[in-house]
Amino acid sequence: MISLKEAALSYGERVLWRDLTLDVEPGEFLVVLGPNGSGKTSLLRALLGEVPLSAGTMTIGGRPPRRGSPLIGYVPQQKAMSPAMPLRSRDLVRLGIDGHRWGMGRAGRAVRARVDELLAEVGAESYADVPIGTLSGGEQQRLRIAQALATDPRILLCDEPLLSLDPHHQQAVAELIDRRRRRHDTAVVFVTHEINPVLPMVDRVLYFVDGRFRAGTVREVMTSHTLSDLYGTPVEVIRAGGRILMAGALDAAGHHHPGGEEHGP
Ligand SMILES: Nc1ncnc2c1ncn2[C@@H]1O[C@H](COP(=O)(O)OP(=O)(O)OP(=O)(O)O)[C@@H](O)[C@H]1O
């Protein structure tokens, strides 16, 4: 579904990453990790056709990236929505519908039925007519996912969809995305700071640090050896109770602090 060959992305002189060769298969769950500013969101923006690669090639769904492709569903980073915003849940979901395919303009029954179907898919029927600004973060996030699924995409790009959700909602939202990819073989690229809520779902990890990266299975990448090498500083990876904890001179966002304290994210 996604194929990158020796891809690089730079802003001016600054190289975010380079020599990235990676294929993502249908139904695969790829998690993208890395400290702030390491280029995770920029990878999604390149896949969306919003920024060009500075080197190498990239195809998504077998074609070069282009804006507005119905093959791709995108769950953007959350922004606070004002309670005064007049948009209802069903309006937000409807915005994701490809008007051409579903006969928008004629305000067809097909569109309304599709919106209902999407609301049901994410379990949001009970607040379908509620203004979105009055909903909780978890509820809003379900709607963003429904919107992203509106074109029945083959690829779902998610930018920190669990941010600011409590553990219960993190789990619910992660399961929603996982169910989608299992039922429809949708490939998932999932940017996050915290791997644990999605650990059971992850097929592969792409981990960016300071212009370098490692890609592979959780077992391959999330090891003391690999991450110490990637960060260039000792990092201890501990597996406990089905979770991965990182100890060493890193803060929770994965930034290196010389002489920093030990802790796990
Ligand atoms: N259009 C742009 N022009 C110049 N620099 C940019 C542009 N967009 C992003 N950057 C810079 O590129 C770097 C990577 O940004 P990006 O958003 O991809 O990081 P990220 O890994 O998603 O970070 P975070 O975890 O904080 O969301 C940042 O330092 C950012 O300031």
UniProtKB/TrEMBL annotation:
Transmembrane segments: none annotated. This is ABC transporter ATP-binding protein. Keywords: ATP-binding, Nucleotide-binding, Transport. PROSITE patterns: ABC_TRANSPORTER_1 (PS00211), ABC_TRANSPORTER_2 (PS50893). The keyword Nucleotide-binding applies. Belongs to the ABC transporter superfamily. Residues 2-235 form the ABC transporter domain. GO terms for molecular function: ATP binding; ATP hydrolysis activity. It comes from the Bacteria. The keyword Zinc does not apply. InterPro entries: AAA+_ATPase, ABC_transporter-like_ATP-bd, ABC_transporter-like_CS, Metal_Ion_Import_ABC, P-loop_NTPase.
